């Protein structure tokens, strides 16, 4: 096997010929594959992914089975999840098994039920040795690309995300009715006892963001009362945060949530030659934190981490209406009953506003962080107090982030959300 590594990235020993033979034989359902060449590149920029190592691989191979062909090419993404002490809590949530289940079982079933919608990449292969690894096709070769996380999403990108999310949620509701047991596989998401109460890593990172928001907002005239309430949250961070995704008495309806819906976890396709910057299709990636629960888990998290501020200020309600319209259309197509009312959706969104607030203080600062600040960011790095203090001070000094925070905090204060700690 010839290895091409023009970018001189660090390629681990386990990504060898035997690995790619197994991946292709399983993914292509072929009994004999010969690997000729593998070309490696990084699958994500530094600071774009905090829990995984992602490799982009172009594989040249021969099929030597019943129908032999030579010189075929495949473009693959290899996602490895290193197990280190700082991310050990992810094992307790079952991120690897969960993502494998989504790609190998849930997504194919959703796509069969839907109007031929494609929600995720094609799954090829997975292994737990020498560490958890999952392989799927490279969506970039199908014309998909990431939008800028620093700029945030405009109306066209944001509305397309919510349209596709509504299709995903609606189809999942039908699947849950057909197979209720599947909900038991997705009870633990980003915020749960395993991530928050049983590990200090989560608090080191996300409590650090909240603490920096408290320090920064203390300098803003008119935010004194809000600052006091933020301090109350920080003083009780673990006790409050682990409950945010839990089912509540009075919940109106539930779905399978993506669970980590921010701007690096969906990709856009652009097919309109007359409007080259307007997206026409969207696909989701990274299903490690998929969770069964209120649809507001996805919606509120997305709105608080990925949408441009001017869109939030002027068209937030319109985005909710776009989501609901598509949700209803797909539930009607699938003959699902009873269809939730718009008031049901509004109830869910209000009941999970604190989940959105977690997205605002815990994710928006790193989502919007410029590349020169984020290129060395990782969960492991955030356990270093000196590093964390310097990085957070730099992040919160930016006017763009402060404007987001000021708007979001005033909105939450007006809704009474900050009185719920």
How is this structure best described in words?
Helices cover 45% and strands 15% of the residues. The strands form 3 sheets. The protein has a 6-stranded mixed sheet. Strands 7-9-10 form a 3-stranded antiparallel sheet, covered by helices on one side. It is built from 16 helices and 11 strands. The chain has 2 domains: 2-80, no CATH class; 109-121 and 145-419, Aminoglycoside 3'-phosphotransferase, Chain: A, domain 2, CATH 3.90.1200. The longest helix has 25 residues, at 309-333. It has helices at residues 17-28, 88-93, 95-113, 155-178, 193-196, 201-217, 224-235, 237-241, 296-305, 309-333, 342-351, 353-362, 364-367, 371-374, 385-396, 399-415, and strands at residues 2-4, 33-42, 53-63, 69-80, 123-127, 133-137, 144-145, 255-257, 266-269, 281-284, 291-293. Helix 4 (155-178) packs parallel to helix 10 and helix 6 (201-217) packs across helix 15 (385-396). With 421 residues, it is α+β, with helices and mostly antiparallel strands. Residues 134-333 form the CHK kinase-like domain. This is CHK kinase-like domain-containing protein. It comes from Stomoxys calcitrans. InterPro entries: CHK_kinase-like, EcKL, Kinase-like_dom_sf.
Rg is 22 Å
**The CATH top-level class label of the largest domain:** Alpha Beta
Q: Note the overall shape.
A: globular
Strand order of the largest sheet: 1-2-3-4-6-5
């Amino acid at each position: 096997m010839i290895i091409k590594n023009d970018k001189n990235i660090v390629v681990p020993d386990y990504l060898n010929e035997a690995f790619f033979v197994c991946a292709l034989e399983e993914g292509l359902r072929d009994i004999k594959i010969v690997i000729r060449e593998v070309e490696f590149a990084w699958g994500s920029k530094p600071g774009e992914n905090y829990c995984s190592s992602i490799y982009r691989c172009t594989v040249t191979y021969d099929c030597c089975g019943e129908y032999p062909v030579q010189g075929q090419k495949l473009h693959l993404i290899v996602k490895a999840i290193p197990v280190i002490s700082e991310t050990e809590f992810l094992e307790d949530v079952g991120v690897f098994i969960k993502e494998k289940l989504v790609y190998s079982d849930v997504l194919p079933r959703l796509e069969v039920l839907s109007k031929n919608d494609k929600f995720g990449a094609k799954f090829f292969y997975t292994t737990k040795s020498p560490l958890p690894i999952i392989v799927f096709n490279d969506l970039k070769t199908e014309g998909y690309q990431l939008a800028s996380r620093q700029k945030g999403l405009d109306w066209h990108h944001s509305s397309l995300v919510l349209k596709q999310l509504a299709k995903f949620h609606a189809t999942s509701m039908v699947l849950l009715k057909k197979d209720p047991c599947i909900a038991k596989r997705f009870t633990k998401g980003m915020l749960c006892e395993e991530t928050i109460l049983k590990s200090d890593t989560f608090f080191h990172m996300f409590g650090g963001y909240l603490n920096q928001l408290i320090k920064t907002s203390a300098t803003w005239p008119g935010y004194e009362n809000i600052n006091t309430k933020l301090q109350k949250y920080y003083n009780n961070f673990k006790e409050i945060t682990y409950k945010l995704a839990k089912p509540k008495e009075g919940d109106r309806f539930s779905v399978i949530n993506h669970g980590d819906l921010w701007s690096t976890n969906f990709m856009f396709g652009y097919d309109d030659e007359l409007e080259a910057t307007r997206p026409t299709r969207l696909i989701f990636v990274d299903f490690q934190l998929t969770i069964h629960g209120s649809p507001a888990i996805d919606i509120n998290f997305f709105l608080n981490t990925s949408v441009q501020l001017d869109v939030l200020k002027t068209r937030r309600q319109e985005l909710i209406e776009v989501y609901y319209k598509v949700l209803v259309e797909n539930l009607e197509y699938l003959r699902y009953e009873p269809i939730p009312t718009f008031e049901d959706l509004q109830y869910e969104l209000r009941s999970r506003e604190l989940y959105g607030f977690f997205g605002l203080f815990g994710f928006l600062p790193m989502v919007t962080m410029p590349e020169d600040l984020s290129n060395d960011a990782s969960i492991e790095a955030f356990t270093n107090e000196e590093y964390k203090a310097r990085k957070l001070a730099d992040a919160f000094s930016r006017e763009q982030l402060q404007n987001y925070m000021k708007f979001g905090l005033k909105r939450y204060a007006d809704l009474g959300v900050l009185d719920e700690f």
